[in-house]
Amino acid sequence: MKIYVGIDDTDNIDQGATGISAKHIIKIIENQRWGSCQGLTRHQLLLHPEIAYTSHNSSMCFTADIEAAYLQPLIEEAGRFLERDSAPGSDPGLCVVVEEQLQDAAGLIAYGYETKKRIMTKEEAYRLARKLGVHLSEHGGTGIGVIGALAGVGLRMTNNDGRFQGRLKLKAPGAIINVAEILNSSSVERVQSLDGYILHDNEEVRLGNKLKTVLLEGKRILLVYRREDGLEWETCTTVHLEDY
User: Fold this and answer.
1) What is the pLDDT of residue 52?
2) N or C, fewer C-beta in 10 Å, the chain?
3) What's the CA gap between 206 and 226, in Å, rounded?
4) Residues pairing with 213 in the sheet
5) For 212-225, how does the pLDDT look when each residue is reduced to its tens digit (9 = 90+)?
6) What is the CATH topology of the domain spanning 2-161?
7) What is the mean pLDDT of residues 178-203?
8) In which domain of life is the source organism classified (predicted)?
9) Which residue, 221, 223, 153, 171, is CA-closest to 195?
10) For position 14, what pLDDT does the model report?
11) Are 81 and 17 in contact (CB under 8 A)?
């Protein structure tokens, strides 16, 4: 069965990173041979002075295909890991959703989008989790990370939100490469402009310093933009990707 695993708030300003914590949970699943995991994505939530976050208020989510018998062991082991390895002062939250058992996907997706617009509470998160019948648990500190953990799953389920963890390794910054080579030598499924134009295989792209992919229409997309001279495509910068 397909599951979504969301976590949030496992770090502090000096130690740890939620993305690294998520990678450790992925390793647990795969080392135990419980199933196979798919792309890890980062989801941006609301930035507000009244929200306690470490740096960017983002949560992490990945999907996995597992046997039903391994669901509870996975939840228990992930929880123990968060309690044991999260940074001091962090407030970790864990959410696990079984896709085929989810009672109201639209409600969970709406919650995810809501966390981008207003301050949410733990009570709201738990209320929705109970209504939907999904696992949501806190594993240290105030446990406020349950908000982002639940939101990360909702946003991942849209198939149109989030940046994939890690950078592409193609050629050196400044190199020019055609789209066909990008598609054939990486996990990228489409090269697309910020306004939605899909580049053809023979079109060329200049590589920037930081190659990140995003989740759009359920695909791993490399976004590009036209340089000021309008003569060639270039991969998007961090500034371009702030909304993803």
Assistant:
1) 55
2) N
3) 10
4) 222
5) 999 999 999 999 99
6) Alpha-Beta Plaits (3.30.70)
7) 95
8) Bacteria
9) 223
10) 53
11) no
